[in-house]
Write a structure and sequence with these properties.
about 260 residues, alpha/beta, Rossmann fold, four-stranded parallel beta sheet, 8 helices, about 35% helix, globular
C-alpha cells in the first residue's frame, strides 16, 4: 500500500485504504468537536469549530505519510445550552451527542481502529465528552478513547495571557479574539467587548473551578462575551496558534510512537 498517496481526511479515503490503515498496530482516528454558538458581536458562531479544525489540520500536516492517523470531519454543532439566550446558538442534546459518539465509535472499533481521540474546542462540553468516552469504551473495549480539550495542559499559555484572562476570560475574550485574528481575520468584527465577572462571585466559588455553578451566559453578560477582548491582536493569535500546534503535535506523536495503553 502506498501511504504517500493517502490524505489525512478520513472521508477522502476509499474503503480499501480504510481497511488497510485500521489494521495497523497503532491505527488512530481523531474526531474534532466544536460548537455553533454565539461568540459576542465580533466573532463567528463557529469559532470553537474553526479553532479545533484548523489546529488539528495543521498538526496532521507535520506527520509523515506512513503514520496511521486520520481525521474525521469536524462535528460543528455541539452542546451549548448556556448560550441559548443569544440568537444563532444551535445546541444538540447531551443524549444525542453521547449516542452519536457511541454509535460512530463502535463502528470505528469494528473496522479495526485501535484508538479514537475526541479533541474538543468548546469548554461547555468537556464533561459531556468525558462521559461519552467512558460509555463508548464500555461498548468498544478493544479501542482506547481519549477525550481531550484543546486548551487544556498547554504549557506557556500563562506567559502569553494576562492573569485575569487566564482566570476569567472564559468566552470570546482576549485569547479567542486574537486566535481568530490569526486564523480568519476576515471573520472578526470591529467591536471589542469588555465584560469581566471578577468580584461578582462569592469567595471560594467560581464558574469553572473547584466549586462551580451551572451558569448561563446571560447571567453575566449582555454582549455574550465573558472577559476582555480589548487587547486582542494578530501577533498574540499567531503565538497562541504556534503554541497549540506544537503542544498537540508533541502529545499525539508521543502516543503514536507508543503502544500505550495496550
Amino acid at each position: 500500500m502506498n501511504f504517500k498517496q493517502i490524505p489525512n481526511k478520513f472521508e477522502n479515503l476509499n474503503w480499501q485504504e480504510v481497511d488497510s490503515i485500521a489494521k495497523e498496530k497503532r491505527s488512530t482516528v481523531i474526531w474534532p468537536f466544536g460548537a455553533v454558538e454565539q461568540h459576542g458581536p465580533h466573532l463567528p458562531l463557529a469559532t470553537d469549530s474553526i479553532f479545533v479544525d484548523e489546529i488539528i489540520s495543521e498538526v496532521l500536516k507535520l506527520f509523515t505519510s506512513d503514520v496511521p492517523i486520520k481525521k474525521l470531519p469536524t462535528q460543528y454543532i455541539g452542546f451549548s445550552p448556556e448560550h441559548k439566550g443569544f440568537p444563532g446558538t444551535i445546541s444538540l442534546s447531551s443524549n444525542l451527542i453521547t449516542s452519536m459518539i457511541r454509535e460512530i465509535g463502535v463502528q470505528l472499533s469494528e473496522m479495526g481502529f485501535k484508538r479514537l481521540i475526541l479533541i474538543n474546542g468548546h469548554g461547555g462540553q468537556i464533561s459531556l465528552l468525558n462521559t461519552a468516552a467512558r460509555e463508548l469504551r464500555s461498548c468498544a473495549p478493544c479501542m482506547a478513547v481519549f477525550p481531550c480539550f484543546m486548551w487544556s495542559g498547554v504549557n506557556g499559555l500563562s506567559e502569553l495571557l494576562t492573569k485575569t484572562e487566564v482566570e476569567v476570560g472564559l468566552h470570546a475574550s482576549l485569547a479567542e479574539t486574537s486566535l481568530m485574528l490569526a486564523l480568519k481575520p476576515e471573520l472578526v468584527g470591529d467591536e471589542r467587548p469588555h465584560e469581566v465577572i471578577k468580584g461578582k462571585i462569592p469567595e471560594g466559588w467560581s464558574l469553572e473551578g473547584n466549586a462551580p455553578t451551572a451558569w448561563l451566559t446571560n447571567d453575566f453578560s449582555k454582549s455574550g462575551v465573558i472577559g476582555d477582548s480589548r487587547g486582542a491582536n494578530e501577533c498574540l493569535g499567531k503565538n497562541l496558534k504556534e503554541l497549540l500546534i506544537n503542544h498537540w503535535f508533541k502529545l499525539i506523536m508521543n502516543l503514536m510512537q507508543s503502544d500505550w495503553p495496550n
